[in-house]
């Protein structure tokens, strides 16, 4: 119902904005109706209209105008379709939404691999191939940026720190309800014919290409807004909402990862907003930022874009590191090894991420004197990244490893990321990057990092926290089948891409030299095999949620706070406020305790 | 169970703790927004160096800057009066702030009108000028909306000195918008 | 406690042996396998050497992680319903110190070699015998031979003499493209309003029919025609090249 009101609000907003812009244009003597200009002008009213309709007005804004806020009466499954401020509802909203986006974008990848099965044209025109490729990239980036943070950051972090909710529950709902706007804009871009700029949307192409690019820009802008609002919330929550005794050195590593990630979002997301704004203004108002003929700078976009988008890679991977280290400790029944070094590694990665962006631009024509500094800074970032590996290996060494499904996925992250990280060292080497840049070597590299690391981390988190979130267990055997199927499919799909990249297969092409046909066909088949592994997951996920065995409060025997409350936790998470008395990983020490959950006098 | 519990959500929180949370959140928000302004300054200098279009009106620039600074002072007075519990002075100062903010926007609108002839958005200086002032004016507008809502609430005694957070928040945000302009003004008008 | 220690020693020895063996095998594989496509320029040597060096350096790092990971999973796994904890080892100064030292050492080393040395080598010789202006637009390549004063609009192929130092001056007329010849390991973006430069020396004869690395392929997404935005590249002997230039001039005159 509230979604319906939101849609009405959004449409009214759009009409209002478009009418305003059109009448201004008519008054100034310009051609009144211009779809892109009207849409640009209607962007804000549309978003505001949707948000007000979907619940901001009823549950939040009414008191600003001296009215009573509507009491919250929705119960049961309907809560998930409502403007709900409970962080646990929002976490599940994020999870389901982004899994949906993930599978949709995955289907697009299947379409792309079908086209790439053979040299020459199979099923897609070059133009529609570009459309699928761009949407695949954009949606997957959105998933990687927001899925773990949105789903598990929201659901788990407040519980892990012993809080009853996030610091700003209403803002939290708002940041989730911006996500449907993102999806709507992406859909709109698809409906008006897509866009062919890839997820990087380089100007000047993004300025001159078809209308779909405008919606891509607006979608990215909206996701950025959602990220920033979320980041403010996480930072404030971790600073202010920790239970008594939860000092910084007692924070579970997953909380640290979300905390550090939120700093990155808070600072750097503004640059994507800026990049998108400049392109939108260039498209609709004819602004000349990137127009060389008018004195603008075509490389400006890349600088601003990567100033966000490289840190964004760490926004994607740090939460997965957090999940991985968390799980490795619990399933090795051993305290996290070198905890402080791992935290330092995360902070180090975040701090250094501001100084590496131009390694995406080694062949761009940027001044030669900048090659060396960016080469150096990029190679150095492997030092803090190495600390994460150090912590991972030290944790499993001499542990007592129980290979439950989440543990398998966490080990998978370490294995896959190893190749993603090592090939990053190759790409950072500017003399070599000249050859490898914009080839499938890069495609393989970032899929090893983001799919092999980030998305394996997402699945690790899903399997790990599913019992907590739903109160039911997932099927262990199906989970194991999924894991082995997925990691084999993954490596057979992406390992050969390093080779075809070195051998002349460039990115973002629907056709290639015949010589590469055999390997491409093998990659496509492996890709379809990988794609099918998710059928197992989906079945397991849906069936277990519906019919799975009841989950006890602590099925894994883990030590952090979320396992000290029921599955799923009650409203406000704990019946009594926990008192934290020790570190989060108390394995091997019977006398150690993380928290006391007894009513105090 | 959920319905009742949900309505009561957060009520057991101490007001002082809530105030601390709100303040920190606002500071994070301001920090993030200021990065947008820093980014715009970076764009300005990277594209144009210290170039300033000669037809940029120094007089209007100075006038709107003074007006905005004055509005920051009255906003500060509003916050102080609120702390003293002087609702009358609070309302008066908020109203003056609203007025000054509106005059600022009118000034920018007038300037835009001139600028459209001298350096339209299709020039690089125009692009930078309209985007910088546009983004800033957008922040001024949101500040005005907030101040207007707060003014109405104070007038209707819905915000009182025991719960003055809405006043504090909107005034702090207003100061931020001013400070942003304090960096934009020399970068747009004076450096050359 | 004593028993645990000796266990640890056996584990460490096994891991060390596996590590050395796997690293050796990996390095052997890396030396006998040629991963590179045909390289036909001075820049290709620099690029391929950089790759090989990084491959050798990364081999022990990769095998170390794989061995520790694999060994731990096989050796330290227990059944799923075990609840007993492992010994609470939270830190190991020696291991951490070694790890940090080695990662810092390796990172700093690769910055200088192959990083800086490669960049210096690429930029060393700025005396070209020949200049070619490359202009990209949606979706075609134009080549202009400056000294020879011949021009090809919407070209089908780029013809070059062997053993010649060539300067490519690259630009674009609309969006960003990228000039990439895989066999030369040369890639530079074509940016509107900017002339980017690449120096390289051709070292091998060849053409597209013989090896598809001899092609100029647009490497920066530039819209619908991006996929097919490519021309062949042919490297001729210097004598043949002069003859080819003459033939082009004559064709131009008669045309």
Describe the structure.
The complex is a heterotrimer of chains A (601), B (192) and C (255). Chain A has 601 residues and is mostly helical. Chain A has two domains: 1-83, no CATH class; 84-596, Cytochrome c oxidase-like, subunit I domain (Cytochrome C Oxidase, Chain A). Chain A is 66% helix and 1% strand. Chain A contains 18 helices and three strands. Chain A has a two-stranded antiparallel sheet. In chain A, helix 3 runs antiparallel to helix 18 (517-547), helix 10 (298-332) runs parallel beside helix 13 (382-396) and helix 14 (405-428) packs antiparallel against helix 16. The radius of gyration of chain A is 24 Å and the shape is globular. Chain B contains six helices and no strands. Chain B has helices at 2-7, 15-48, 58-84, 87-118, 124-155, 165-190. The model of chain B is unreliable at 1-8 (pLDDT under 50). With 255 residues, chain C is an alpha+beta fold. Chain C folds into two domains: 2-74 and 94-123; 130-254, Cupredoxins -  blue copper proteins (Immunoglobulin-like, Sandwich). Chain C has helices at 2-32, 42-75, 93-123, 238-254; strands at residues 77-78, 130-137, 140-145, 150-152, 157-161, 165-172, 177-181, 186-190, 196-201, 215-217, 230-236. In chain C, a hairpin with a 2-residue loop joins strand 2 (130-137) and strand 3 (140-145). At the A-C interface, helix 4, helix 10, helix 12, helix 13 and strand 1 of A face helix 1, helix 2, strand 1, helix 3 and strand 8 of C.
């Amino acid at each position: 119902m509230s979604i319906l009101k939101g849609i009405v609000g959004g449409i009214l907003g759009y009409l209002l904005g478009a009418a305003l812009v059109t009448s201004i244009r008519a008054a100034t003597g310009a051609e009144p109706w211009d779809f892109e200009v009207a849409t640009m002008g209607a962007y804000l009213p549309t978003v505001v209209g949707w948000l007000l309709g979907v619940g901001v007005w009823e549950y939040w804004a009414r008191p600003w105008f001296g009215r009573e806020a509507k009491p919250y009466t929705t119960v049961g499954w309907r809560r998930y379709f409502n403007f709900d401020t409970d962080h646990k509802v929002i976490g599940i909203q994020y999870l389901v939404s982004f899994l949906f986006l993930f599978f949709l974008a995955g289907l697009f990848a299947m379409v792309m691999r079908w086209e790439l099965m053979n040299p020459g044209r199979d099923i897609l025109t070059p133009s529609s191939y570009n459309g699928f490729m761009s949407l695949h990239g954009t949606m997957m980036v959105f998933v990687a940026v927001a899925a773990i943070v949105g789903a598990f950051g929201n659901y788990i972090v407040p519980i892990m720190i012993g809080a009853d909710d996030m610091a700003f529950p209403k803002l939290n709902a708002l940041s989730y309800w911006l996500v449907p706007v993102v999806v709507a804009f992406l859909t709109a871009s698809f409906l008006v014919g897509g866009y062919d700029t890839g997820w990087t949307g380089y100007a000047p192409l993004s300025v001159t290409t078809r209308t779909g690019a405008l919606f891509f820009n607006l979608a990215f802008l909206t996701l950025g807004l959602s990220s920033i609002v979320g980041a403010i919330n996480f930072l404030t929550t971790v600073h202010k909402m920790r239970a008594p005794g939860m000092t910084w050195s007692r924070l579970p590593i997953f909380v640290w990862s979300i905390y550090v990630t939120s700093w990155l979002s808070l600072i750097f997301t503004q640059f994507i907003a800026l990049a998108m704004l400049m392109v939108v203004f260039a498209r609709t108002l004819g602004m000349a930022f990137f127009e060389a003929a008018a004195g603008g700078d075509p490389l400006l976009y890349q600088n601003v874009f990567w100033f966000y988008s490289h840190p964004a890679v760490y926004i994607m991977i740090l939460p997965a590191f957090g999940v991985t280290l968390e799980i490795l400790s619990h399933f090795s029944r051993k305290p996290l090894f070198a905890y402080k070094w791992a935290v330092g590694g995360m902070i180090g990665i975040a701090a250094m991420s501001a100084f590496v962006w131009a390694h995406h631009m080694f062949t761009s024509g940027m001044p030669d004197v900048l090659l060396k500094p960016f080469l150096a800074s990029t190679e150095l970032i492997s030092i803090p990244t190495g600390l994460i590996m150090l912590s991972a290996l030290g944790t499993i060494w001499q542990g007592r490893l129980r290979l439950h499904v989440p543990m398998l996925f966490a080990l998978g992250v370490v294995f896959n990321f190893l190749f993603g990280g090592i090939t990053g060292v190759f790409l950072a080497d500017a003399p070599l990057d000249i050859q490898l840049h914009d080839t499938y070597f890069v495609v393989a590299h970032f899929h090893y990092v983001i799919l092999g690391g980030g998305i394996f981390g997402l699945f690790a988190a899903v399997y790990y926290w599913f019992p907590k979130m739903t109160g039911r267990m997932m099927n262990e055997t199906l989970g194991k089948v999924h894991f082995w199927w997925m990691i084999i499919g993954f490596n057979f799909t992406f390992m050969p891409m390093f080779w075809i990249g070195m051998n002349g297969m460039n990115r973002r092409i629907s056709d290639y030299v015949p010589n590469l046909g055999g390997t491409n066909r093998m990659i496509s088949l492996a890709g379809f095999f990988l794609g099918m592994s998710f059928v197992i997951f989906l079945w397991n996920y849906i069936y277990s949620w519906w019919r799975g065995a009841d989950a006890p409060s602590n099925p894994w025997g883990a030590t952090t706070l979320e396992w000290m409350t029921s599955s799923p936790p009650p409203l406000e998470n704990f019946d009594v406020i926990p008192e934290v008395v020790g570190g989060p990983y108390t394995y091997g020490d019977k006398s150690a305790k993380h928290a006391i959950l007894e009513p105090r006098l | 169970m959920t319905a009742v519990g949900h309505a009561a959500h957060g009520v057991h929180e101490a007001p002082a703790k809530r105030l601390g949370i709100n303040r920190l959140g606002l500071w994070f928000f301001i920090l993030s927004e200021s990065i947008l302004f820093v980014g715009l300054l970076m764009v300005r200098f990277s594209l144009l160096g210290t170039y300033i279009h000669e037809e940029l009106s120094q007089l209007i620039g100075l006038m709107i800057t003074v007006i905005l600074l004055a509005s920051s002072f009255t906003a500060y007075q509003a916050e102080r009066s609120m702390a003293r519990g002087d609702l009358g002075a609070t309302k008066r100062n908020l109203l003056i702030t609203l007025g000054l903010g509106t005059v600022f926007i009118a000034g920018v609108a007038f300037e835009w009108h001139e600028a459209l002839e001298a350096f339209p958005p299709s020039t690089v200086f125009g692009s930078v000028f309209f985007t910088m002032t546009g983004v800033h004016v957008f922040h001024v507008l949101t500040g005005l909306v907030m101040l207007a809502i707060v003014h109405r609430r104070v007038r209707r005694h819905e915000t009182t000195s025991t719960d003055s957070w809405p006043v504090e928040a909107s005034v702090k945000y207003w100061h931020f918008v001013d400070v942003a302009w304090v960096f934009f003004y020399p970068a747009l008008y004076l450096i050359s | 406690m004593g028993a645990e220690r000796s266990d640890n020693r056996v584990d460490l020895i096994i891991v060390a042996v596996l590590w050395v063996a796997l690293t050796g095998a990996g390095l052997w594989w890396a030396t006998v396998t040629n991963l590179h496509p045909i390289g036909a320029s001075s820049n290709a040597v620099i690029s391929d050497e950089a790759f090989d060096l990084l491959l050798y350096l990364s081999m022990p790092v990769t095998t170390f992680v794989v061995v520790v990971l694999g060994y731990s999973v096989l050796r330290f796994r227990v059944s799923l319903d075990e609840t007993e904890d492992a010994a609470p080892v939270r830190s190991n100064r020696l291991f951490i110190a070694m790890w940090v030292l080695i990662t810092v050492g390796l990172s700093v080393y690769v910055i200088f070699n192959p990083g800086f040395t490669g960049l210096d080598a690429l930029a060393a010789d700025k005396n070209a015998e020949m200049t070619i202006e490359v202009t990209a637009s949606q979706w075609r390549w134009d080549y202009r031979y400056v000294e020879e004063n011949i021009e090809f609009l919407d070209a089908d192929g780029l013809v070059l003499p062997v053993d010649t130092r060539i300067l490519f001056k690259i630009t674009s007329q609309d969006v960003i493209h990228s000039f990439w010849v895989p066999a030369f390991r040369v890639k530079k973006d074509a940016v509107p309003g900017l002339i980017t430069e690449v120096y390289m020396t051709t070292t091998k004869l060849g053409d597209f029919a013989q090896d598809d690395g001899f092609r100029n392929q647009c490497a920066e997404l530039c819209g619908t025609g991006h996929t097919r935005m490519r021309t062949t590249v042919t490297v001729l002997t210097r004598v043949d090249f002069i003859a080819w230039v003459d033939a082009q001039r004559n064709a131009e005159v008669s045309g």
